[in-house]
Amino acid sequence: MKILMCASEVVPFAKTGGLADVAGALPLALEEAGQDVIIAMPRYKCITDNKFSIKRLKNDISYSVIGKNIKTYFIENDAYFNRDNLYGEKTGDYPDNLDRFSYYCTRTLQLMKEINFKPDIIHCHDWQSCLAMVYLKTKYVKDPFFKNTRTILTIHNIGYQGLFPKDQFPKLGIDWSYFNMEYLEFYDQVNLLKGGMVFADIINTVSPTYAKEIQSKEFGFGLEGVLNKRKKDVFGILNGIDYSIWNPETDKIIAKNFSAKEPKGKAVAKEDLQKLCKFPLRKDVPLIGLISRLAEQKGFDLIAEDMEQICKMDLQFVLLGTGDQKYHILLEDIVKRYPKVVSLHLKFDDALAHKIYAGSDIFLMPSRYEPCGLGQLIALRYGTIPLVFKTGGLADTVNKDNGFIFDKYNKEELLKTIKDAVKSFGNSKKWSGLVKKAMEHDFSWEGSAAKYLGLYEKAKTKK
User: Fold this and answer.
1) Dihedral in degrees, nearest 10, Cα atoms 157, 21, 24, 379
2) Does 242 score more than 90 pLDDT?
3) pTM score of the predicted model
4) What are the structural domain ranges in the chain?
5) Class of 2-240+446-460 in CATH
6) What is the pLDDT of residues 78-114, one digit of tens each?
7) Which bin fits 219, alpha (ψ -120 to 50), beta or left (φ > 0)?
8) Nearest one of 301, 302, 292, 309 to 345, comparing CA atoms
9) Which segments of 145-248 does DSSP mark as H helices, in order?
């Protein structure tokens, strides 16, 4: 099967979030399953010749190879993509994002004809690539080259929709008749994600529970009606994780390797993390790790309210991430008052992330909503027990047999669950069994890729 993967960010070339991890790892798993896969993405300023092995195809197209032979084609346009960031500055999104991603989608479809790659499936990710599906069903609807091409849209987070003012609609180059409630109009704005949802042959998201949640008013962000209309075409497939990167048996960053069969190295990893955090070297106290964007969606409204109480427990707490300034200020104040309890790292640091996953006992992830979540999957692999709110992919992957879960989103329930986890840590025999069970889970991409192939076959039957 010929598959074109369209994503605005792809590991290892450019990343702001989990979308890039999926767009980089899924093609590798599909290639292993015998599929013919290529990727198309914008060439941002961060994608340089000295970082990656890049070859020139055309004046405005270059490419690099990942896996055995997956060509990642870079759509070049310095006016649009030669910028410090992918989507915007701290002050907000780039005002010309509609122009930028319309160009990316248009040039990607043109490129398929130029290299004579007739995709059976175009797999689009999030709003930035949705116009590829819109254009296939409008501008290219009678083009014989794409006659047998079918499309899948993966929604990584329905909260991000690609909204633009109505007066920018003509930039899309399609008829005004498509600016209505049935197509791209959304409360008198252009909504690119909605356009993708309307025109995609199959819609999926990154966990079965989230696929159900986004069809409700609470989690649908105004698009639940569109999804309910297309209910029979909406599916959920859990993301996998790349065990060549996230594996305590082979991880070169952590202090000592370990596994479910040989778990002793985890204690060494914990001591290493305690030293790094300037914590007292105590084996008898649980170390809680948290790696996250500091935002309300990620549960920081609850954490902020509970932080004082958490710090009064007999535990250690390390946080890594950046986000809303109000949480930066609150946490910096907490560290001043509890320096032996809390270690705060307001940055992105991949090496430290590995050490936190390996050295922590408990991994905190109380997101208000979480489409899939990779943190809890990585934590399980490292024998770090997840403590989560029952939502989306967290509900699909964490239960009382491998973690701690609370199902009412309030500060009291979060605090109670943390207390339960701390108490459980005191029973070393029971805790060791929990750790062993956690490490035996398999969330590799192989299983997820097989499910995606099933969706591709389903899409191919669409007329």
Assistant:
1) -130
2) no
3) 0.90
4) 2-240+446-460, 265-442
5) alpha beta
6) 999 999 999 999 789 999 999 999 999 999 999 999 9
7) alpha
8) 292
9) 192-199, 208-213, 224-229
Query: Which residues make Cβ contacts (< 8 Å) with residue 104, sequence separation at least 6?
Result: 8, 40, 41, 42, 75, 80, 128, 129
Structure tokens at 8: 């605005």
Measured distance CA(196)–CA(122) in Å, rounded: 12
CATH class of the domain whose range is 265-442: alpha beta
Q: Peptide bond preceding 12: is omega within 30 degrees of 0, i.e. cis?
A: yes
DSSP string over 39-101: EEEE--TT--TTTS--EEEETTEEEEEETTTEEEEEEP-HHHH-SSSSSEETTEE-TTHHHHH
Among residues 341, 348, 246, the alpha carbon closest in space to that of 293 is found at 348
Helices (H), 277-410: 300-311, 325-337, 350-359, 375-381, 392-397
Which residues, other chains included, contact 76 with Cβ-Cβ below 8 Å and sequence gap of 6+? 43, 60, 61, 62
Residue (of 331, 364, 358, 174) closest to 274 by Cα position = 358
Alpha helices in 258-349 (DSSP H): 265-276, 300-311, 325-337
First to last CA, the chain: 18
Helix pair angle (428-439, 411-425), 10° resolution: 110
In the three-class reduction of DSSP (H, G, I as helix; E, B as strand; rest coil), residue 272 is classed as helix
Amino acid in the structure at residue 327: Y
Q: What is the pLDDT of residue 348?
A: 86
Integer Cα distance of 445 and 243 in angstroms: 9
Assess contact for 399 and 405: CB atoms under 8 A. yes
Structure tokens at 288: 């809680």
